Amino acid sequence: MGKLVDWSGGFWERRYSAEPVLDDTALVGRLRYVLAHGVKEGLVERSAEWPGLTCLPQLLGPARK
Questions:
Q1: Helix or strand (DSSP H, E) at 60
Q2: Structural domain of residue 36, as residue ranges?
Q3: Does 49 map to a domain?
Q4: Which domain of life is it from (predicted)?
Q5: How far does Cα 47 stand from its chain's mean position?
Q6: How far is the C-alpha of 57 from the C-alpha of 50, rounded, in Å?
Q7: How many domains is the chain partitioned into structurally?
Q8: DSSP of 18-56, one letter per residue?
Q9: Does residue 34 form part of some domain?
Q10: What pLDDT, on the 0 to 100 scale, is given for residue 44?
Q11: 4 part of a folded domain
């Protein structure tokens, strides 16, 4: 897979590292990172367009008409 996207190093090069979320600011930062990933990588134009698993609808609440 790495060769297809021109990555250097091993695909699973780093080991897993659990990082504690110590406060609300850190939690919001991680949530923003996860929700923006598809947009950042150019896979979708908006986070709401992500076709995979997401918690965005629950975070936004009921749809308004």
A1: helix 56-60
A2: 26-60
A3: yes
A4: Bacteria
A5: 9
A6: 11
A7: 1
A8: -----SHHHHHHHHHHHHHHHHHTTS-SSGGG--S--SH
A9: yes
A10: 94
A11: no
> 51 CB contacts (<8 Å, ≥6 apart)?
44
pLDDT band at 5 (very low <50, low <70, confident <90, very high): confident
Lookup: tokens for 48: 């709401």
Give me the residue label for tokens 């695909």: 11
Euclidean distance between CA atoms 57 and 61, whole angstroms: 6
The residues, any chain, with a CB within 8 Å of residue 32's CB and separated by 6 or more, are none
User: Residue 10 is which amino acid?
Assistant: G
Per residue in 14-37, pLDDT (tens digit) is 778 888 999 999 999 999 998 999
Report residue 51 as tokens.
């076709």
Structure tokens at 43: 């896979």
